[in-house]
Amino acid sequence: RPVLPRDYNAASDFIDRHLAEGRGDKLAVIDDHGRYSYADIAERVNRAGNAFLALGILPEQRIALALLDTVDFYAAFWGALKIGAVPVPLNTLLTAEDYAYMLRDSRAVALLVSDALSPTLAKAAGDLPRLSHVIASGDGPSAFADAPRFAELCAAAGADLAAAETTPDDIAFWLYSSGSTGKPKGVVHLHGHLVQTAVLYGGGVLEAGPDDVFFSAAKLFFAYGLGNAMTFPLHVGGTAVLMAERPTPAAVMKRLKDFRPTIFFGVPTLYAAILGDRTIDRGASSDALRLCVSAGEALPEDVARRWTDRFGVPILDGIGSTEMLHIFLSNRVDATKLGSTGKAVPGYELKVVGDDGAELPPGELGELMVRGPSTAAFYWNNRAKTVATFQGDWCRTGDKYIADEAGFHTYAGRADDMLKVSGIWVSPFEVESALVGHDDVLEAAVVGHMDADELVKPKAYVVLRDGLAGDAAKTRELQDFVKSRLAPYKYPRWIEFRDELPKTATGKIQRFKLRG
Ligand code: 3SK
Fold first, then answer.
1. Distance CA 516, CA 514 (A)
2. What is the pLDDT of residues 444-470, one digit of tens each?
């Protein structure tokens, strides 16, 4: 584990160190618009930091980032950290209501928003007295017609900037994480956390080095993507390939061909979708690719086997969390057990505990707990959930696991009702509430259901009001209704109509009777 000096600003470590060590000319980032050396990135970071200072933004104030994956994300994230402010990257797939909550909860004083996301954010950003600045990223039309352009603010700002005096324990950034009930929680991470994940997982498990080119289908606003496509490449002086568009199989394969990444990071749903297209073969990738990584949800054995057969590259399954910042349990190239999530990443400790909190021996099923040097400090403004999750230096994962004698851990479902869909949390309760908001729906229960690739997607059981028929047209109508109310990825892929739902004597829906 790295031991950090008392004076430590993560931006100096991840950005300025490369200039001090003579790597200014090395290629750091390729995005949809261009290529940027380490010197270019350092200058953009300094200009962004100075632009924030010129707006009067103070250390510890939050700057919300609703940004697609472009070099502006790097500039804004590190520019904020460098002045001691706190970037809060937001999921770019959410609704105006979700954003309104996060902007209010975080008390963000500034919002930087990609043009393409501006119509949704514009609906969220009214009536927020603490939000003093909205800045537009991009050069297209923005729904914030009067907002200053990030590029112009940066061009007018100075190119030199000294890092704010921070310590490894200063708050660096937040990420929002959703739970089964209640609103999303602001997960608070410290300056010292990023380097721990870069060294322990990026260096220790991936054995990443300066010749690696990193490409992540998971976007930078996810903890998974933040490491894959930003902190891991930056830490070793490698190169990151960024893509703003949605990670469809075609878009991903094009980047694999054009930019020849050496490490690719995806989620099982994407690996299965690529495998589902028989026209995509090894020739559609490149011979530079040495390693693939899967996280976000458990990787079905069959998908892993077919991927390696088709592309000739190992695929490492692992699991992380927003609370732990990145992957803490993983297979390794030289220690893989198919169907298992692997062993503890060195530097992290795991234990499987029973309902009473006592550690269980190998072979017994319980909840996985983890401790390590990148554990979030707390949830913002949520004492009850903080104490329930962070217990001493152990963090409850909410995942059920069985460990074997050799330390391999096999996933056995969630301790709560949460679903991981294409690597993103979905609360069944939120989908149920949306469904019952439809005039024709009396009751709804949502559970996880396996698709043909053994990947979990939401399935709804619905009781309609008297006399209404549940048919294909009603299914589509309800699916569209959910998509119009919630982030579209949350919609139920299947709807089964029932006359009634199984319930306990006290009227509680018995979801376990519907799972299958
Ligand atoms: O979902 C995961 O497995 C994950 C991996 C790395 C970082 C964050 C998360 C949630």
1. 6
2. 999 999 999 999 999 999 999 887 889
